[in-house]
Amino acid sequence: MKILRYITFGLVILNIPSTALSAYGSAVGALLSYTSIGLLALYYFLEQKTTPNWWLIIISILFFMIGGLQFKGLTFPFIMEIIKYFIYLICAYELAKHISTSEYNIFLLLGSTSIILEALLFTSKFGRYSGFYMAPNEAGFICILGYATTYGLKNKNIKLLGQFIFTLAGLLTFSRTFIVIWLLLNVISLKISIKNIRIFGLGFLIISTLFFIDEVVGLNNPRFEQLKSIVNNDGDVSSEEINDDSRADTWAMFYDDILDSPLIGNGYGSFTGKLGSLGAHNTFLAVLGEAGILPFILFMIYIGYLIVMSIIYFNKKPNLIMQMIGLSLFLMANHNFFTFYYVSFAAIWIQYQIYQLRNDDNEIEVLNKKFS
């Protein structure tokens, strides 16, 4: 079962089907995609089954049902996508129950290492790297998620090594979202221990490594040139350059469509680029814009619940709120919660960790009452 669990988890978290699709074509990509779903289903039937994830099941049913009412694409692919997603959703929750923090961290580390290897071995003319994740912002999410999980590790050396690799890989994506969240998480880490301030010192080593990689292979990235200008105090970087391609400008393009149909949305795929249009790059806007107010409210309650409970259990598991901050801010810059399985798995895993903590507290409370 452990081998099956690791293979299945690796296919999901390392985004192997999409990588194969890009590298070897649709036939291999589709084969691995269905293999991932098949292995998830096999693991589910072999593992002892417990309470399903009703939160996301209900939200997803409403999202696909209401969004499907106005869907303008091909019916068969849409139905197959829904079937695959619900098999994944039901089975992945059982998988999440058997993935420890250290195991999660290791797989995220493997994914992040692929970004560094791509930068070293396959230099891109675009100068942004994503490894197995095909797009730099998604790769940045994996790095920040992995960075957050290091605060749940007990071994200090492994924790420090992980922080170095996740940060270096995240910087190689040149994702502004990654940098903002990384700074925020490090400020929060000071509440755990003032000794965590050393990570800012490690940051200088990471920047030096970044400059070394640039000297060896050439990163060819305008944002890196901006960074070098800032470090060298050249004064050649304007605020317009740094804020170029702002997500806020993208979101604004969809506000009118939301106001036109706030109750039932504009149909599945209308805000996520599936119909050839520009995507909203915001999961919250996508849920509201595609399926209306009801799924949006439930989704906001779900994310809010995870944030609040993660804060409550900060002292026991500080990595949870750090992961939730990374996930929440990423969802504000990405619209693929329901289609990128490694994104929704992050929420599923955190949800079960909270369930375990609450269950432990209830057991302690029962024992205290019994012996009081």
Description:
The protein has 372 residues and is mainly α. It is built from 18 helices and no strands. It has helices at 2-13, 16-24, 26-46, 54-68, 75-96, 101-121, 136-149, 156-172, 176-192, 198-217, 222-231, 239-242, 247-252, 255-260, 283-291, 293-312, 318-331, 341-371. The two termini are 42 Å apart.
Weakly predicted, low-confidence segments: 237-242
Helix content: over 70%
User: Per DSSP, what share of the residues sits in E-state strands of 2 or more residues?
Assistant: under 5%
**Major sheet:** none
Order of helices and strands: HHHHHHHHHHHHHHHHHH
Structural class: mainly alpha
| Total count of helical runs of at least 4 residues | 18
Give average pLDDT, whole number.
87
Number of E-type strands? 0
Annotate the secondary structure layout.
Elements: H1 2-13, H2 16-24, H3 26-46, H4 54-68, H5 75-96, H6 101-121, H7 136-149, H8 156-172, H9 176-192, H10 198-217, H11 222-231, H12 239-242, H13 247-252, H14 255-260, H15 283-291, H16 293-312, H17 318-331, H18 341-371
Helix pairs in contact: 1-3, 2-3, 3-5, 4-5, 4-16, 5-18, 6-7, 6-8, 7-8, 7-9, 7-17, 8-10, 9-17, 15-16, 16-17, 16-18, 17-18
